[in-house]
TrEMBL record:
It comes from the Bacteria. Pfam families: Aldose_epim. This is Aldose 1-epimerase. InterPro entries: Aldose_1/G6P_1-epimerase, Gal_mutarotase_sf_dom, GH-type_carb-bd. Signal peptide: none annotated.
Length: 306
């Protein structure tokens, strides 16, 4: 069984499982779950898909058929899920090591060597620093290209939030990617009225798996049943927000150890299949030796009434 790392500060508590894909197992405020809690079955199985949140390195979302061309080189990636495309990079499927830690913070990381791991052809080092305080949780995502060649890159977080009958999500967004049957982007359009996060969207009757563009960096989640709200704030590089709310059948199929209903609001740097698309896809090119660093923050608060 993987060992847990417990962080505490003020009213917050965070349980990390570095060996399970750098996953967050539980994140609470005043004892209330802000992310879906990871089940014992998921922990025992070492399954980060059952986590409260896992990292997206060295890209987010999907790459069509695991293939793309970068700087004159054809790249072929091995499939890492049951679907037809490569999903979420590989950081969520790799063990991370604790670099340093104290009562309220921890830095974890891993080094990818393509000579030993064929999932990605570029050498790089990734780190995440988790810091708890009375202001909430800050997660700093860092990647350094250790290859002699430039490397395409993207990252983000994949949090799973509790989905209650009255939960809602509000965020400033400007665009939306329509998708095909394989959840791959087909056309960039305005935000559909039925999914307008700008006005606030109830999570109960929504089924969606799409990228919203022009994310303004702040998303607000409300759980009126518990009189709790959560502010998610991301640095400007995370200009895309993926909203994933599965239907009941899909959620049941994806459940790991009976996980409760959830929805995902993922701040990410790149759109789905960014490495294959032209235009403003969010793809980052890291030169040899260059380091990327950006943060995502979570802060809970009491909801006011009236």
């Amino acid at each position: 069984m993987s060992s847990a790392r417990l962080l505490q500060a003020a009213d917050y508590a965070l349980t990390l499982y570095p060996e399970i894909g750098g996953a967050i197992g539980r994140f609470t405020w005043r004892g209330i779950d802000l992310l879906r809690p990871m089940s014992e079955a998921a922990v025992d199985a070492g399954n980060s898909e059952g986590a409260g949140c896992f990292p997206l390195f060295p890209f987010s979302n999907r790459i069509r058929n695991g293939q793309f061309r970068f700087e004159g080189r054809d790249i072929y990636l091995p499939r890492n899920t049951s679907g037809p495309h490569v999903e979420h990079g590989h950081g969520w499927q790799r063990p991370w090591e604790v670099i340093e830690a104290d009562a309220g913070s921890a830095t974890i990381g891993f080094t990818h060597d393509p000579a030993n791991d064929g999932s990605w052809p570029f050498a790089y080092h990734a780190e995440m620093r988790f810091e708890l305080s009375d202001a909430g949780l800050a997660v700093n995502l860092v990647a350094t290209n250790q290859d002699v060649l430039a490397m395409p890159f993207g990252c983000g977080l994949h949090p799973y939030f509790p989905r209650t009958p009255r939960s809602s999500l509000t965020a400033t967004v400007r665009g939306f990617w329509e998708t095909d049957a394989e959840v791959m982007p087909t056309r960039h359009v305005g935000v559909p009225e039925r999914l307008d996060l700008n006005r606030g969207l109830a999570m109960e009757d929504v089924v969606v798996d799409n990228v919203f563009t022009g994310f303004g960096g702040v998303a607000r989640i409300a759980w009126p049943e518990q009189q709790v709200g959560l502010r998610l704030e991301a640095d400007p590089v995370f200009a895309q927000l993926v909203l994933y709310v599965p239907d009941a059948a899909t959620q049941a199929a994806e459940a790991v150890g009976g996980t409760p209903p959830y929805f995902c609001a993922e701040p990410v740097s790149n759109i789905t299949d960014a490495f294959n698309l032209s235009g403003k896809t969010g793809m980052i090119t890291l030169a040899s030796g260059e380091t990327f660093s950006a943060s995502i923050r979570f802060a809970a608060h009491e909801l006011t009434t009236g």
